[in-house]
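Query form — protein TetR/AcrR family transcriptional regulator

QUESTION: What is the three-dimensional structure of this chain?
INPUT:
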Amino acid sequence: MANPSEGKLLKRPERRRLLIQAAARAFARSGFAATNLDDVATEASVSRVLIYRHFDSKTQLYEAVLAEISDELRVATGHPDHLTANSLRALVSVAQNNPDGFRLFFRQSGQEPEFRRHADELRDAMKSTAAPYLKEAIKDPARLRWAADLIPTIAIEAVIAWLDAGTPAPDTAADTITEVVGAAVTAIAADPLRG
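ANSWER: The structure tokens for TetR/AcrR family transcriptional regulator are given below.
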């Protein structure tokens, strides 16, 4: 992919940001293990030497990519103790603006044990936030844990499926995903003995 800054002298923070974006694309495509710095250099239209001026290793670059998307998600969704339907809209917005970073953060890093903690921390915050809201509707502790665990999974996987489908109906995607999550909670909350 051609770099829009090719041939331009960039300030260090701007160059670093462009390298992180190129790395997100390369890592999202192939994962950490299968991506080398030559792949990132090609994606960024720079030399490996330039990458080493900003990052000591592939691991440090990967961590920088994950940290950037983590920060983006935390800023956009608000404090993890106060996640709302607007937080889900923000999640969709981040995914739309940074699809490679979003996929990398939730899909690829989850397959890399040494980096999984990044996505797990956000998922855990979402679970912890969901549980108190669900206590009213779900009295059974096991079903409550199940619902709290399921909400982030459904939301994140629905956003990834939306990205994979080419982001159809971007104006209503967050509402649709919110309805899907709500339907799952309703189904789990339903009394299984009601018949």
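ADDITIONAL NOTE: The mean pLDDT is 88.
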